[in-house]
Specification:
With 308 residues, the protein is an alpha/beta fold. It has ten helices and eight strands. The chain binds NADP nicotinamide-adenine-dinucleotide phosphate (NAP). The site of NADP nicotinamide-adenine-dinucleotide phosphate has 29 residues, from helix 2. InterPro entries: NAD(P)-bd_dom_sf, SDR_fam.
Length: 308
């Protein structure tokens, strides 16, 4: 009897977890033949699953990665899983503004189209500095993508209608931006929250700036995902997170659903500048919808990356 109770308890626990992790799948299969998608951080996690989904729909997929060994392996895997040969990688280190500029020069020289830009690469909560002296989270997650998108904006406009999808996180709500200290680098979790809030403002301001020019912009919270982000932490933390992730986080393929939805679906296109969770528009805290702050961050970012 005792054995039976244990089995029943284990089964109930399993199904409760499964129920908690239920998510929508984006099942529409619009073809993307003739279109080009660029995905930062496409060698792992959500970026890689997004690359597979877009390549499967016929898009030419370019993954922009900092480590060419990992990129080569990822390209092989993406080709295999998507049954597409139209996948390649290019070198990009978002922690180095020179690398971002060089990447854009090479990309604009070799690629005639850019229809979908997925800003997926990201650093989790770590206290480190980029080559240009910015805090690692703010520098990679926001400034690197800010410069990249701006340098490619002309090509996106030429290929209109085109889309930019930027990965953010629902924990943006735990911090606000301090314009006296945008380069804040004290508590790792807070640096990450701020960079993800910056992603939301960036996405909104991009939508405003490109209004009527055929480029639309979306911010996505992919859910909490069993990806490779724990590799930046100690062995003990990784072990702990393996258990927690197995219990509560969703697989990368599920995390990529909302990204693909925003990149492809006609429904998402109606919500330019929107924030999306679980394949549908979601609401933001009022402070994260402040157009004045979004504009101010855009202008500050232009100065920081010397774009103005
Ligand atoms: N996982 C989650 O639960 C979760 C939740 C909310 C939001 N997000 C967001 O989702 C996005 C994707 O994360 P993920 O979960 O898929 O994590 P991931 O598996 O760790 O992927 C992150 C990617 O970013 C790349 N990257 C990091 N620094 C870079 C740099 N300086 N230059 C170029 N590429 C760089 C990594 O390349 P390397 O392989 O070379 O390190 C990797 O390909 C991130 O923006 C993250 O903030 C994730």
């Amino acid at each position: 009897m005792y054995f039976l109770y244990t089995i029943l308890a284990a089964l109930s626990f399993y199904y409760v977890l499964k129920w908690m992790k239920r998510r929508r799948y984006f099942t529409e299969l619009q073809r993307l033949d003739g279109k080009t998608a660029l995905i930062t951080g496409g060698n792992s996690g959500i970026g890689k699953e997004t690359a597979i989904a877009l390549a499967r729909r016929g898009a030419r997929v370019i993954i922009a990665c900092r480590d060419s060994d990992k990129a080569v392996k990822a390209v092989r895997d993406i080709k295999l899983k998507s049954h597409s040969l139209n996948v390649l990688h290019m070198e990009l280190d978002l922690a180095n503004l020179r690398s971002v500029k060089d990447f854009c020069t090479r990309f604009l020289h070799s690629e005639k189209r850019l229809d979908i830009l997925i800003n997926s690469a990201g650093m989790p909560s770590v206290l480190d500095w980029t080559d240009n002296g910015f805090s690692m989270c703010f520098g990679v997650n926001h400034l690197g993508h800010f410069l990249l998108t701006n340098l490619l904006l002309h090509r996106l406009k030429e290929c209109a209608p085109s889309r930019v999808v930027t990965l953010t996180c629902s924990i943006y709500k735990y911090q606000k931006l301090n314009f006296q200290d945008l380069n804040y680098n004290l508590l790792p979790f807070f640096t990450y929250c701020r960079s993800k809030l910056a992603n939301i403002y960036f996405s909104q301001e991009l939508a405003r700036i490109t209004e009527g020019k055929g480029v639309t912009s979306y911010a996505v919270h992919p859910g909490f995902v069993q990806s490779g982000w724990t590799c930046h932490y100690s062995f003990l933390f990784r072990m702990l997170m393996t258990v927690i992730m197995w219990m509560f986080f969703v697989p990368c393929e599920v995390g990529a659903q909302t990204v693909v939805y925003c990149a492809v679906s006609d429904e998402a296109a109606k919500h330019n500048g929107g924030y999306f969770v679980d394949c549908r528009p979601a609401s933001l805290r009022p402070f994260a919808r402040d157009a004045g702050v979004a504009k101010k961050l855009w202008e500050a970012s232009e100065r920081m990356v010397k774009l103005a």
